[in-house]
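Sat 14:20. Reprocessing the chain from the morning session after the first attempt stalled halfway. Input below, unchanged.
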Amino acid sequence: MTLVALPEWPWQTVRQWAAERGVRVWVVGGAVRDVLLGRPVHDWDFVVEGDALGLARALADSLGGAYFPLDAERGTGRVVLAPADEPRQELDFAALHSEGLEADLRARDFTVNALAVDEVGVLVDLTGGQEDLAARCVRATSERAFQDDPVRLLRAMRLSAELGFEIEPQT
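Finished this time. Tokens:
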């Protein structure tokens, strides 16, 4: 079991709001990747077992941020916070996959983005993302990754350039 020390902000605030609403929440994706790499995090992704849009709206209202539904049908919304003298922060909230966290992570684009941290800081890595971070490798989570979303081809190139990682040959 690997424990991940996430920054207090915004994780503790999101956890508190989720607990008050009786929903589970995980930090996922690039935010987890960047914390593990020691990079600053400006874009936070959360999956919510429950009303993701309601949680995002409540947080935006509470924190004086802007709320945008990104995909109401799939339960995805964004909170944008732009405090004076601080970098802009984006907090994206998505409804958990109907088949649970494992299905949610396996449906993501690349192994280094298919990582989650639960409420107590336990890392969930079902696709070998930690190993690929250590190997500095961009690897698709599945053979269907690009069929499911062809834009992921461009994201692979961007991620490789941004992180200085090699794209795994089969990917």
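Residues 8-21 form the longest helix (14 residues).
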